[in-house]
Predict the structure of SDR family oxidoreductase.
Amino acid sequence: MPNVSGKVVLITGAARGIGAQTARELARRGARLALVGLEPDELAAVAAELGDGHFWAEADVTDPDSIEAAVAAAVEKLGRLDVVIANAGIAPIGTVRHSDPRAFVKAVDVNLNGVFHTARAALPHLIDRRGYLLVVSSLSAFSPTGGMAAYTASKAGSEALASAIHSEVAHLGVAVGSAHPSWIDTDMVRDVAKDLRTFAAMRKRLPWPMRATTSVEDCGKAFADGVERRARRVYVPRAIMVMHWLRNVPSSRLAERLMLPVLRRLIPQLEQEVTGLGRSLSERHQKLQG
């Protein structure tokens, strides 16, 4: 397994959650980190926690000029880029019938277009270093869940984009992978659970391993391991691999029949809860995204 000691790793969405924890784990293994995101105070705090030799920059992945500037600043400060983790993401709540269309568009802009802008800005540097790009997709990419259409569609798109980039740059020595975490104990997941009582009820009725929750520490270790082996796929937990192999099962007729009684009861409840909230994003993401 290659060593990441001395490697320069840029992570988007690095202010908290999976991004911040992966940064901690990679720094522990000797990597130098470039932390990118929308929360400057949180980014500065994580960078200070990591110690000397790291860098942070405020940037919006939906703005190509912004992410290009952050990448350029990271290269100027740290000398190069060996690894990029396109991790920035948001998770709107609500069904297609009842959600705010602007939230759906924003999810695609952050979760899919943001990966495109990040990869496009970083690839010249990764080609120079024969580096590695890890796109953070989701279990949801191959296991759609009602009430999460925007997240599912955008994460499926990011997985497909990662595969396309892989085929485009493999001959240049750049490895590209996609990560597929299930439910990780992060602010984003807790925010949705706080807003929607039906969220927890729906999760409990998903078959294992789709309902499993993983600590952010274990997720960070899995991502760091994936970076070290330049993995084509990273599954968190590893049992999610089975769901990838059986990706057509959740949309099969048998699965639909088994879930239909649950969905008949919970989807209307979810729609009522979202309507009552008056928003389709968590309070924190609503503020960050404007």
Q: What stands out?
A: The first helix runs from residue 17 to 28. Residues 8-288 form a domain with the Rossmann fold fold (CATH 3.40.50.720). The chain has one domain: 8-288.
